């Protein structure tokens, strides 16, 4: 299975990001909703703190706003205000809405069970952890630290072809993959 | 100075409330904004817990949604979703917007410095505490406990006249009182 | 049932205290052991904070070191060092050892189930609360606040006779009351 | 500089340990005193949690009871009771007392500034971190995780000679090294 982020819009980044373009770094994706108490009280503060521990050449934090309820009041403008007030400085992807149902596309493709979820990829882009709920700080730190210390096995993964595929996907409307 | 709540709308109550109608009870008003981190992480959970400690004949908690920024994304529908997700069961007043500026009317009339603010009235309706920021649980409990133990000095304060005045104010648009 | 403190020794007070001599004040007794994690992490810090909220004319905090295990390493000198390091400034009674078993006398007389326990007396010296385990700050504050607001019904309770009885008990070795 | 543990006694281990004998593993030493609030409230619970995250083939936690005050009430029997009540299961070294002053030997040799201190050695036995005070969970986890992921550079470091030197030191009384 290949993981990619399907974003309708990005915050806090000049250009859209893709997991492929971040190969060589450990990537921690925090899937959240702005009205999800566990996200607001635990996971987002944790993501902010994690973002300060390592160089962004080694670790990238990405917020994934995966709205699956109350869509009408958690739109981009609301998210922008929320991110401003909570001082979220890392890039945030707005998960693509699907016409086929309330679950957004990345959330469905990745099989996320709800928010908050933490999804971690190693330097080679392989899925290393996908977990629903809050992670203990010490455990998360230890897990990420181990991945950071591992060298990427391939240095040429960020190919133009991979990037092109992602860009294409990133602008597609939800297609057949959204029918389940 | 007389304190009253100027609400454009109420949540979690069949009919609008007024401080006058609650005479005889201790009233704790938690002024908040749904995108205010200190409100969400500290004050609203504290208000929920306080609401469970006493009979509602003795203590009433009122949320006051005093929006003074990001008005466009903190409207009634957003607040309704927020209150649902955070399991806020106590009555919440939406502070009346003022044409004269970003500060809502109750916030201005009461001289609140920001959110979160806690405003407490004794059983006679007298202001007992008005404080910006988070209050320590032990201190807040001790303060409220003392007020609870005091009997109301007047049993006839909930007069029809007082109620009428409040109802009238409650439906007024922001007038001259909003010009300062 | 009459409550009194049976102490073999006191810390942080020039003279032994008795509940009778404290009539007119609310008294919170925190029963602890210096090697009890729940006492050290929760109850003693809470007692310290509570001690700062009110005048000592209204509220007195008393620590009760009720050792029922590891007696040989929780003696007076160890307690003195412990109290110094944890900055415990309120009076602490060392619960009288009993020859009849490991439970100290006050703990047995009061029917305490373990440590930490919180025992609260109103201004008249009546038992108001006796609870094993940690109390939530907000709830404890509210409980104590209510008692503080109540006036003592009798102003003459601190009689010489009552005091004499206590002093006598306070120096007795464990007698028949320790046989159960 | 060479680091070794000078212990007068060990708890929770069948035989004395030495850093040399643990080569190949990451070793986290938590220096504490049983009456040190920061140790009891923060560092020891953290050490317990860290001990559960990795195999003991990869990570070893060692408590170091470095008593530099109140010596008379923090002896081995008291420590044993303390460790039992706090459910400390990892090996604990009692730092050797020095005749030349209140500071124990390991604490002096290692230049520790007080308690709690955290001292971390990599798989090769090199000092990786030495810090006074409490470490944030996320940061500590990340630091240890990185060390865990690194392979030991030498597989033969646990030589008989090194071990012998340690054993000899470990049983010496405080000598000239304690005079500064």
UniProtKB/TrEMBL annotation, chains A, B, C, D:
SUPFAM superfamilies: Thioredoxin-like (SSF52833). InterPro entries: Redoxin, Thioredoxin-like_sf, Thioredoxin_ResA/DsbE_sf. It holds the Pfam family Redoxin. It comes from the Bacteria. Coiled coil: none annotated. Residues 15-133 form the Redoxin domain. GO terms for molecular function: oxidoreductase activity. This is Redoxin domain-containing protein.
């Amino acid at each position: 299975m290949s993981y990619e982020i399907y974003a309708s819009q990005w915050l806090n980044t000049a250009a859209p990001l893709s997991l492929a373009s971040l190969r060589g770094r450990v990537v921690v994706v925090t899937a959240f909703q702005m009205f999800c108490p566990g996200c607001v009280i635990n996971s987002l503060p944790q993501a902010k703190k994690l973002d300060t521990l390592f160089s962004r050449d080694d670790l990238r934090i990405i917020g994934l706003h995966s709205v699956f309820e109350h869509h009408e009041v958690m739109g981009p403008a609301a998210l922008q205000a929320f991110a401003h007030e909570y001082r979220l400085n890392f890039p945030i992807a707005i998960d693509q809405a699907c016409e086929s149902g309330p679950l957004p596309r990345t959330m469905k493709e990745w099989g996320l069970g709800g928010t908050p979820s933490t999804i971690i990829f190693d330097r080679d882009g392989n899925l290393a952890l996908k977990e629903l709920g809050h992670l203990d700080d010490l455990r998360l730190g230890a897990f990420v630290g181990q991945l950071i210390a591992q060298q990427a096995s391939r240095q040429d993964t960020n190919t133009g072809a991979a990037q092109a595929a992602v860009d294409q996907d990133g602008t597609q409307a939800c297609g057949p993959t959204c029918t389940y």
